[in-house]
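Subject: Interface between my chains keeps coming out wrong

I've been trying for a while to get a sensible model of this assembly. When I model each chain on its own everything looks fine, but I need the whole thing in one frame so I can look at the contacts. Pasting all components below, labels as-is. Any help appreciated, I'm running out of ideas.
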Amino acid sequence: MAETSAKPPLAGRLVYRHNRITRLTHWLSALALMILFMSGLQIFNAHPYLYWGSTSDPDKAFFSIGASQNDDDVRGFINFYGRKLDTTGFLGVQQGVFGPQARGFPSWLTVPGYYSLAAARRWHFFFGWLFAITGVFYLLYNLPVGHVRKFFFTPHDIKKVPAMAAYYLRVRKTSPQEGEYNPLQKMAYTGVFVVLAPLILLSGMTMSPQLNIAFHWLPALFGGSQSARAIHFILAFGFLFFALGHIFMVLTQGFLNNMRSMTSGWYKEKIPIVIETRRAASSPRGTPVSSEQEAEKSNETES
Amino acid sequence: MKLNPKLSRRNLLIGALQGASLVLLSGCEKLFDSLSQNKKIQSLLEIAENGSRRAQRLVTARNKLAKEFDAKDISPKFRANGNPPPITMDYTTDAQNHWTKWRLEVSGLIKQPASFSLADLKSMPSRTQITRHDCVEGWSVIGKWKGVRLEEIINRVQPGTDARYVVFRCMDTDSDGVNYFESIDMIDAVHPQTILAYELNDQPLPIDNGAPLRLRVENQLGYKHAKYIRALEFVSSLNKIGQGKGGYWEDQGYEWYAGI
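Reply #2:
Try treating it as a single job with all components included. I did that and got this:
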């Protein structure tokens, strides 16, 4: 184990926050997740119903997107446990060249836009592999250098959550943040790494007949292959929720600074924090703070 | 004057973002539509299919069985999908005669070409299994199947070492008159649960579900399970079968390996 040391508090200085593997895998995952989400909606459109259990008794779907026709009036709707909500104009029905067509998610949300289950599957599986391999690559590189530890949510962080939430809600004026990542960031990223990503991969694998043979525990884990399909769908929206929150924070908490840190690696600290580094592997480029870079940056204003 | 490197990077970044959102907002659908139809992109994406097949076979023991369910799990209705049943005179007459005239022709790279009546197949050792059927569309049903193991037929016709695939020739056609066909390789063909089924839920195989004989290949999705079979052909390559992709749906762009 490398010896750990505490660097003096930093504010307004550039720190090398994201190593090149983190940056590369971040953008690859972002691309993969976008295509996975959109091709997944196209795959869902082939059978826009969700069930619990192993089979799909049409009367027992707990969620569905459908269309109903009354003379010339075609209405789209979603049905959630028997409660219907009219979604005409968005879900269930879409205006096509030949008039309204029944269609779960609209073409502008799916990959490809035209109806093709076969093409959507090809996109989905290619980027599913890419997403999984990217994740493994990220962990193999970053676990040994202690990068993941910096944003890993621990029981120690729980009691700091209210103060941080109060700061974000503008109830509290000063940020209670101590380390490189605040407790709410840790919560979000740890949730993605420990819950969302593993479960969405496993629930996706559970829909494979061959993997059902290889790993009988897979369908058992999710309560049947149809349950796995439903959970996979729900987790996809968990990812969407995370991505929207993530993008909102990037846009509002210093957009250019955040974009710089995820493209060049260098992040300008806004508040005095202490960075704990492992001396042996603080950053691939050597010291975590470059004085040259710092001087160069001194007259730049925060966006 | 020396260009400020930071400024140009910032401009580049802003430009890239503007471009990205433009693509996202207006051209995303068109972009992915044209990419989906691009031959080079298609073959790039197909890398994943081979990867899935190799990886999944690597982690699956050869003779490991798919889960077999209890009688109480059987779905009330076994949903039928795909082409409507054949409507040719031969087919309807054979059905009326309880398939006494129907024969399964077996040909190709085998030492003992043969043909079997339904009675022949039923007199061979049978296997009964209650398994889950997963459609590529996303729905699943559970049914009880009885049939003869494909390996039983293979042992009788003795394929040569050059026989790599079994092609299933079917009697159903699409609206353009194209006959259904499918293929699996010898690894899946000799799996203990790969059967030519003639019974569903203790009844003779219904017409909707592929009478008189259909394939069950439990490690793959529904479209591999050829219905209305009339002949088996052992081949060394799929190139000259149909449009060369190994199956009716494969010719429409679906994966040949449907274990995922």
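Reply #3:
Confirming on my end. Chain B has seven helices and ten strands.
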